[in-house]
Specification:
With about 425 residues, the protein is mostly helical. It has 23 helices and no strands.
Length: about 425
């Protein structure tokens, strides 16, 4: 009996101890919950107080800006009142104020000439605080020395730049100025040609492209500057466009990197042409029309890469047909003529080739002799009619020279000093 009593007493004490521990845990948990709630309350209170503070000092600035805007464009006052009747709690949770969107929308339309459609596509910049867009536009105008129509064109083409802070744009412009050795005029020219550069990442986009082009084409800094200023090459992706195009050209024409570089620098716009829709078709057509092997084709393109930018149907085909018919050439003779003077494909028939041919015919007084003369020396088509041939013909006639093929060759080949000495000798 005493043993049973002792056991019961022991069990009762152990149960009381467990109950006490359990109660302590509940107390601790309750205190933790209360502490967390108190901490959250403090954070929210500080946030609302901060919003209230900011809110308290913003109305005067907004009122002033909106009042000025109302006078110019007649903004609805009810929109303005809606903003300033809101509590800090409403301001914290609300979307961008309608007054700000109205102000920015009107600014884009009236100041920058945006259409309604373009404004809709630029919705992300409508939420900028009042005055921010104006500040960024003025900064860009001053930094690049832009005229009103130029800043309108740039912002309409690339409205995203209005969403970028001035410091970000300044860093990008400073990089381009240093990397490409640009003066203010060249920087302005580049931005007018390619305003979307302002929206590109310097580290992930611009710098890798410049480094790739400089290394692949063996360019010095001046040559790289010329390439970038003369084309929209920075618009294109390295892996999807630039690299495949350069490799294709190199393989198709059998070029080493130095020859490839010369072609690109003579005709930078080749970087903007499509391989499938332009370059490949033009090369295949020229090779077939003139019966060229791969080496002859490569030599011709190296001499005059601008051929790749000429239209087959509107330029080269009618020109070759005219030359072959007018000069009575076989296919082989026509091919030889063009290989000797590839720039002939870039000359205009009505204003250049035909008047020059008629000059030689009239000067020699014999069409057959004139045709033979130009076929033997196709460079005769490359001399300026008004600045060289006509004035020198008149001087030769005045000096009493016999105008024949030999005389015409001297007129073509001699420098100004050599020709002056020749005329002085003939007059004695």
């Amino acid at each position: 009996m005493p043993s049973a009593l002792l056991l019961a007493t022991h069990l009762l004490e152990e149960r009381n101890m467990q109950t006490t521990c359990y109660n302590k845990r509940r107390i601790y948990a309750t205190m933790m919950i209360i502490g967390c709630c108190f901490l959250v309350t403090i954070i929210l209170s500080a946030t609302f107080l901060n919003v209230s503070f900011v809110y308290a000092f913003q109305p005067y600035y907004y009122q002033k800006q909106l009042h000025h805007r109302q006078q110019q464009h007649g903004l609805d006052k009810c929109v303005q009142r809606e903003h300033y009747n809101r509590t800090p709690f409403q301001l914290f949770y609300a979307k961008t104020d309608p007054a700000i969107i109205v102000y920015n929308r009107q600014y884009l339309i009236d100041t920058l000439g945006f259409t309604e459609e373009k404004v809709q596509r630029s919705a992300n910049i409508l939420t900028a605080e009042i005055g921010v867009l104006d500040e960024r536009v003025n900064w860009l105008k001053d930094r690049l020395g832009l005229k009103e129509n130029e800043i309108k064109r740039i912002t309409q083409q690339q409205p995203r730049i209005l969403g970028r802070q001035s410091i970000s744009l300044e860093l990008k412009l400073d990089y381009l100025t240093t990397r490409l050795l640009l003066d203010d005029a060249s920087l302005r020219k580049l931005m007018l040609r390619s305003p979307n550069i302002l929206g590109m990442s310097t580290e992930d986009n611009i710098e890798p492209k410049l480094n790739y082009l400089q290394q692949k084409l063996l360019l010095d800094d001046v040559a790289l500057q010329k390439l970038v200023l003369g084309t929209t090459v920075l618009h294109y992706n390295i892996e999807d466009n630039l690299k495949p195009k350069l490799i294709w050209l190199q393989e198709r024409l059998g070029l080493d990197e130095g020859e490839l570089s010369k072609i690109i620098m003579k005709f930078p716009a080749i970087m903007t042409l499509s391989i499938e829709d332009n370059i490949e078709l033009t090369l295949d057509w020229i090779q077939q029309r003139l019966g060229l092997d791969d080496i002859e084709l490569s030599k011709m393109i190296t001499k005059m890469p601008t051929i790749l930018g000429l239209s087959i149907t509107e330029n080269m085909e009618p020109k070759l047909n005219w030359l072959q018919r007018r000069l009575s050439l076989t296919d082989e003779e026509l091919s030889k003529l063009i290989q000797q003077l590839p720039p002939l494909l870039g000359c205009n028939i009505e204003t250049n080739i035909e008047p020059t041919l008629n000059f030689y015919i009239n000067a020699l007084g014999d069409e057959s002799e004139a045709l033979t003369f130009v076929i033997r020396d196709p460079s005769s088509f490359g001399r300026s009619l008004e600045k060289r041939l006509k004035p020198r013909l008149q001087e030769a006639q005045d000096a009493g020279m016999i105008v024949n093929s030999k005389c015409l060759k001297l007129m073509m080949k001699y420098t100004d000093n050599e020709w002056a000495k020749k005329m002085l000798k003939e007059r004695k």
